[in-house]
Structure formats: structure tokens, C-alpha cells
Amino acid sequence: MADKLELKKADASELGMNEQTPREIVEELDKYIVGQDDAKRSVAIALRNRWRSRKLADDIRDDVIPKNILMIGSTGVGKTEIARRLARLVKAPFVKVEATKFTEVGYVGRDVESIIRDLMQISVRMVRKQRTEEVKDKATENANERLLDILVPEPKPAQNPLSKLFNNVDKNAAPVEEPVETNNAGRDFVRKRLAAGKMEDQVIEMEVADHAKPMVGMFSGSSLENMGENLQDMIGSLVPKRTRKRKVTVAAARKILEQEEAEKLIDMEEVAETAVQLAERSGIVFFDEIDKVAVKGSSSGPDISREGVQRDILPIVEGSTVMTKYGPVKTDYILFIAAGAFHTAKPSDLIPELQGRFPIRVELKSLRKEDFEKILTEPQNALIKQYKELLKTEGLTLEFEPSAIERIAEMAYDVNEQSEDIGARRLHTLLEKLLEEISFSAPDMVKDGKTEVKIDAAYVDEKLKEIAKNRDLSQFIL
After folding, report:
1. pLDDT tens, 415-463?
2. pTM
3. Bridge partners for 153 per DSSP
4. What is the C-alpha end-to-end distance of the chain, expressed in Å?
5. C-beta separation of 329 from 40 below 8 A
6. In what helix (H) or strand (E) does residue 89 lie, and over which residues does it extend?
7. What's the rounded Cα separation, in Å, for the pair 326 and 322?
8. Which of 110, 137, 267, 361 has the largest CB neighbor count within 10 A?
9. d(CA 141, CA 51)
10. Residue 460 and residue 464: Cα distance in Å, rounded?
């Protein structure tokens, strides 16, 4: 049993660990994010330092805390994407929150500690998914046995029919035994058919758990949110689980039964303990729009509430213990990444205590025309690749000439210069407008025998030139 527990802990540590070097981490981020080399280097070093800290001796490991990062740059340049890809790379719990969510003029926002509770929910989900994969084979085996019980039920012992009419029949008399050879042969026959996949579409009736809808939704978004969750869990443990009959196919029934059997095989207490360790040592919290709660100079009114948000965030960032329904969670070793455009405010407008908790500052550069060209084509999730695949489902092949890509990038850069700079998000609006007619007419074009469309610079100019030239119009459309 001890060996099994050690194995589980080792697996859990791998869930939040990354063996890649900083250079390899940057190369992985390059697949999805164009440019911003300084920011990539900073997060890669922060990630590697986590790996290094785990190799330290116990007497010094607890003194090494992660160096939090402040990203400065306009919207759409890759701040959020860098943090999100980093969390996926390390398989760590990641939560993105907006600093402005925790206060608004006129009412009190969410409790700041809900950030850590959200992080814990994600951590539990990750560990639970891993444990489900570990017991998948056994759960499938048990689910198939339960399927056989439904398809070939056990024979009931035969009773004397007079026993229903007369109460004086000897109750100690042994029931009449029926031969079970026929039933066993039937189970073997059905088992072989199930293994061969010949019964997947057969409809059966089975009892499934009736999951009631949450009754405490009124608590969400308030400081009583955690109390509402605990109350719901307590009520759920007191009230017996209800079941209902449902008609499903054998394939759907197997999935339901596999999930139920996996829940029986998983030790949820161990999952909770492991999830707490994962959140504490590998969790990443991304504070977006941190500049919106910065206070410029000494002022009154709404700015006081902004400073209050910073002071509420401060204990979480500098290290505290937050009570969750899975147990206490220490925030000392969670990596915090804050980001903001800082157009009207400066990082120095944050309260000094909070500034000191983000020692690494990285400035992300505005995107140039060359960057837009790369964003359109190079990343694995490049926009042009997405549109090509979408239209391919209609049977339409979409081809972009190099001149068209260059023209789109040039327009995106020009519109960002003339109006608000929204970075790479400008490409979404331009491409949607550019391909609006094709997306609408694609099914009809395929029916008429047209299966290929080429887009060149002339087509781009025809669809977007007037909008790009007319600054007033582009503010409304783009």
C-alpha cells in the first residue's frame, strides 16, 4: 500500500513538473506566439526556477519563492496567451482573473480569496482526470460486467406459487434451485458479442443517478460563495442519491458505468491532498487589467476602491493561507503573473507593497507589419489555417496568395496606428470582414461546382480598402 501511495505522489509531481530547459520552453512558445522574446525568456526562466527549487535540500527549499512577473503591453500582443500556453506546457492549474472584477463603483465585487478556490477546483479536476486514466482499464472491466447483469440478469430462485396464497408455508424451506448452466452460457455469448462491438447500438433501460441542479446559485459572486458550496455539499451528503430509469444505447451505457466505476475506484481524499500540493507548488494565477486598479497620485472617490483592491490582492500575492473545501492552501509558492496596458497609468502608480511583489518586469512591444504576416501563417493555430480548415468542411479549398497576406498585415498595422491599437485581435476583424461573402456563399459555390477560391491583393483591396481608408467607418466596423 505504501509503494502504491509513493507511485501516486510521483505521478502527481510529474503533473506539475516540466523537464524542458528555458531554450526548449521558448521554442515551444514560438509555435503559438510571434515575437515578444523578452517575455518568453522571463516566463521560461521562472518555470525552470520552479524545477530547480524542487531539487534543493529541504532546509533551503521552503525559503525559495517564485519571482512574480509584471507584463506591460497593449492589448492583443500576447500577454494572456503566453501565460496560458505556459500553464498547458507544464500541466499546471491555471486561472485567469481580471483585477477589476473584485470591485466596481456602487457595489462590492467578488471575494479575492475566490481566486485560490477557483485554482483549487481546476487542480482537483486535473488530478481526478489523471486518476481516472490510471483506473480506466479496471473501470471498463467492471462496467462490462454490469452491462452483462443488465443484458443477462441473474435468474431469480423459483418459489412455490402457493406461498403467495397461504402464510403457513414453511419459510425455512429451501427455494427450488434452477440450473445456472443456461444463464452462464447466455452471459458468455453476450460477452463475446460485446467484445466484438456487435451490440453498441442496442437500446437498454438502466438506472442512472439523478443529478439535481444546484440550489445555492444565489450565493455565487458574493463573499458567501464558499459557504454556499459547502452547504450544497453538506445537503448532498445527507440526502440519499436518487436514481431514475433511462433508455440509452449500450455504447452510452458503458460510458456512464465506466464513470461510476471509476469514481468507486478513486480515493477522493487522496485526490484532494494531491490537488492541494499541486496548486501550492505549481499553480499559476494570471491577473489581467492590473493597470485598471492603479491609483494616480492622491485622490478620492472611486480611486479609493481601486487601492482597496490592491490591498486585498496583496496578502494573496505575498503569501497567506486560504481555506477551501479541500483544505487550507498556502499561496507562498504560487506563481503570479500580472499584466496591463498601462496607457493612462504607470507601474509606479501601484501601491509600493504590490510593486515589490512583482520584481520581474517585461515590456511587450507593439506588433509590426512583419509580425502580423507571421501571425497569419506561422503558428500552429494560425488564423489562415483555421479558416482553410473551416471552409474545407464545406468542400471548398481556400488559397491565399503571398501578396494577399502581405496586404492584410499592412492594413492591420495601419488601422491599429490610426485608431485603437488592439494588436493581433485586429486580424480577426479584418479576416471576418474579408471572408464574409465566401463564408456565406460557400455551400452554394460548392453546389455550382466551384471548389477552389484564391485570394490575392486585389481581392483584399476590393473588400477592405474603403474601410481601411475611412477612419471614421473603421472605428465602427473594425
Report:
1. 877 777 778 888 888 888 888 888 898 888 888 888 888 888 888 888 8
2. 0.74
3. none
4. 62
5. no
6. helix 79-90
7. 11
8. 110
9. 38
10. 6
